[in-house]
Structures are given as structure tokens and as C-alpha cells.
Protein: 7-cyano-7-deazaguanine synthase
Amino acid sequence: MTDSTPKRAVVLASGGMDSATAAYVADEEGYDCYLLHTSYGQETEGKEYDCARRLADEVDAADFLHVETGHLAAVGGSSLTDDEMDVADADLESEEVPTSYVPFRNANLLSMAVSYAETNDCGAVFIGAHSEDFSGYPDCRPAFFDAFQQVVDTGTRDDTDIDLRAPFVEWSKTDIAERGTELGVPYEHTWSCYRAEAPACGTCDACAFRLQAFQNLGVRDPIEYEQRPEYAE
Structure:
């Protein structure tokens, strides 16, 4: 890219609060945002798509790409995509890899994002992974993103320069919610629940971490829940 070319970035937009906050960070940094949303057979894919599409409008995205992939569901191995596996209730103290882990999902998503970025002369790819993810999801670890940056540098054209950005990788969910609140992220149009499209269950891991973040801040989460347990630290 030349100096006169606008800054462009692909943002992996799941429909959740972390990726929405990442999009607002990219926008604040002056990037024209190209949002990539993937449906891969997850239980709440319709709701997640609606939220990602709304986010594209909120940040005035330069482009919105929706890709449907069936291979992660076909491979299985996750309660998010396999009807034979139940989504477990939240256990915020567990250090085990949860059943909601989709094997090597982030590598799959980032590969598509890098293809999208290289095609559109984007200088960065943003992903909203954070520290509470990598306590359970191996493909959210800082070392994974460092290694994937090497893959990007090695596997793209010599004149391509794409910076893999995981701005929250050392942050807690509470940190993200605090930053997003400062940026005015419309969290009422994001979705985290693994089980249901409306209302959110309030008891799966994703709901628990989200509710805990807002409760830690003393701010009411604006989406509807079937249950609102107290998770504040």
C-alpha cells in the first residue's frame, strides 16, 4: 500500500461483544473496516449473523462478507456444532478445555480473514480473543497468534504486509466491556449465548463471562436473559 491509500483492516465479526469492541477499536484507529462473519453450524448462527450485520452498519463498514462453511460442523467435536453434545453450564474456575471449544477454529477463521485482507489490500486483521478465552481455548493463546503471524508473513505475497491484531489478548472480559462502554459500542446489538437466540440462557460459559463483566462494572447488560445469576467477582 502507498501512503495515500486509506488504512484498511479486516475484522472477524462473530456477532459477540469482543469482536464488536475490536471493530470499534479498529475504527477509532482510523481503519476502514472490512467485516468478515462466518456461519459454521453453531447453534445460534442466525442471531449472530444479524448482530454482525448490524455492527457493519454501526461502524459504516467498507464491506461485509458473510461466508457459510460446513466443515467445522461436519468435523464435530464441539458442543456448539454437534447435536449429540450438550452445552455445559458455566464453570468459571475450570482450567479444562471446555466442550464449547471448536477444534482449531481460529486458524480456520484467520485463514479466511487473511485471504480477504490480502485481496483488499488491508494492512491488518483484528480478532477479539482475550485472556479468559485462552485459559480454556488453546487457539486463543498469545503464542498461537505469534505463530500465526509468522504463517501470514510466510504465506502471502512479498509486497503484502498484514499485521495480525489481537488487542485484547491480555485483557479480561471486564476490561473489554469497560473499553467498549467508553467507545459507545452498542452491546444491545451483540450476542454471546451458546444455547439460545432469545432470550440468552444466562448459565452457559459465554453468558456467565459476559454477565460477570457487566456486573463487575456495575452496568446492566442490555440484552435479555432467561436467568441473570450473580457472577461478579
Q: What stands out?
A: The chain has one domain: 8-173. The mean pLDDT is 93. The domain at 8-173 is CATH 3.40.50.620 (Rossmann fold). The longest helix spans residues 105-119.
